[in-house]
Write a structure and sequence with these properties.
single chain, 302 residues, alpha/beta, TIM Barrel, two-stranded parallel ribbon, binds zinc ion
Length: 302
């Protein structure tokens, strides 16, 4: 009995001590701020999902005036390589959003490792110039198609003055899966935020301007995303609260400069929160059917 009582007291004490250890650094750590990114646009669908998204970022009940980073297909004829696409890039820039490069090839959304070095280098120059024409200033960021990269493409980005930016959380809207997207998105985002909370507690996330920037990947070519953008903002904030993950008083970025600063720091580290395998890992690598590290760029292998 005495042994039992001693064990109980000890375990309670240890529990308190571990609890204090686990909690005190976490509560003194900076809060999270979401850096929203959109791939594949600008979208020329007649219902203008890119515009619908920008309108909701500007006017919503969660936090008006959200600024985002749009990774564009700068010269493809169905995107930035058209008059309408150029207008959309110009508008996004004028509204204070940041434009980054997704693809600078007229051939479109082709994984960069498939290009010859010469074609990749040219596409980066041409793509940057096409963006700069609509949005004066230097293009700082690239997110490669399918998020796939290797040492050769990284060197090409560096030579073009671009920093690669992957993401911590994907809302999985890159392909149109129909109803499953809407049914599963809340639990999927919750699972991603849980990993973010773990990385925060472990002190893995770099701090920028008093917050931990957490990069969220969406697609402005997805009509579902466009119709539900405000809900995505709500889900990110609500699920963070549910997890006890503290958010900054402004949970999203509101100006291009601080967004770019956050992106720069994250790009320097090139490490991301992975809820499972790396977003950039090709499908065959994920499945173990091709050589490669499925956890490349992940803070921790989970
Ligand atoms: Zn893409």
């Amino acid at each position: 009995m005495i042994d039992f009582a001693r064990t109980l007291v000890l375990s309670l004490l240890m529990g308190t001590a571990f609890g204090a250890l686990a909690q005190s650094p976490a509560t003194s750590l900076p809060p999270v701020r979401f850096l929203l990114t959109f791939d594949d646009g600008p979208s020329l669908w007649t219902d203008s999902p890119t515009v619908t998204i920008r309108q909701q970022l500007a006017h919503n009940p969660v936090m008006p005036g959200v600024k985002a980073l749009f990774f564009v297909q700068a010269v493809h004829k169905n995107h930035g390589g058209s008059d309408a696409g150029q207008r959309l890039m110009q508008e996004a820039c004028a509204e204070g959003h940041v434009l980054g490069l997704h693809s600078g090839s007229p051939r479109g959304h082709i994984p960069h490792p498939q290009f010859t070095p010469a074609e990749l280098a040219e596409s980066l120059v041409v793509g940057n110039a096409a963006i700069a024409q609509q949005c004066p200033g230097t293009v700082q960021f690239v997110r490669p198609p399918d998020w796939v990269y290797n040492d050769t493409t990284l060197a090409a980005y560096q030579a073009a003055g671009l920093e690669m930016l992957q993401a911590d959380i994907s809302v999985n809207d890159g392909k149109i899966y129909g109803w499953t997207v809407s049914m599963r998105r809340r639990s999927h985002i919750h699972a991603g935020l849980e990993k973010v909370a773990q990385a925060r507690r472990a002190g893995l996330l770099p701090e920028v301007d008093g917050a931990f920037p957490v990069i969220v990947a969406l697609h402005d070519t997805n009509r579902y995303t466009a119709e539900h953008m405000t809900e995505y903002l709500q889900i990110l904030v609500e699920e963070s609260a549910d997890l006890g993950l503290p958010l900054a008083s402004q949970p999203f970025y509101t100006d291009a400069q601080s967004l770019a600063r956050a992106g720069h720091v994250r790009a320097q580290k090139q490490l991301y929160v992975c809820a499972g395998k790396a977003l950039s890992a090709p499908m065959l690598v994920r499945l173990g059917l091709a050589a490669g590290d499925p956890y490349k760029g992940c803070f921790v292998q989970n």
